[in-house]
Fold:
Amino acid sequence: MTFMEKFLELFRRNLQTERLELRMLEPNAENAQIVWNVLKNENPEDFKYMWFSVSRKSHLPQSLEETQERMKLDSEYKNGCVYYIFHDNNFIGYMRVHYWPESKTLQCASVWFIKSAWGHGFNREVHNKLEDLAFNRLQVNRVCRQTMAGNQESIKSIESSGYHLDGTDRQANRMPDGTYMDHLLYSKLACEYKKPEQQD
Structure:
């Protein structure tokens, strides 16, 4: 089995954590409605750091049709997969991962949660699951995360999880208002990985 085949076997399926379900949703009308029913009630100001690198848009979808179109674009994502995150059977967030078998690197990207899901430790719970699969099952050398320079909560979460800042893509993200923001790149190596119960 190749590294990519192993990745697909481990990651391209629904995953379960202690409290969450990470679902791979087909981009059909029914699933788009589930996502849109939640996002249409969210405040766009709470999502200024949202970023869809597939669609190159950084705002909440503005209609059911746009929601389904984004889901279709994500479903075509190569060498990776997209998760829609559910808690108590309710949609609360989104995450995308990408795998580079040549360097044995897993990239975690574009994670976000609706505002009512902030502050519950869901982000860390998701990444603990992915790190376990990546380091212990897929045996990657490196897991990468990224965030925009202005997203202080995300920076705090990433750095407190043992990731190191590798560098900055200057003005890599164009915001809805036309301004540009730096993109921060972080990584954790296999030799730096500790299982959650071992972390300080």
Remarks:
- The chain has a mean pLDDT of 89.
- The domain at 3-195 is CATH 3.40.630.30 (Aminopeptidase).
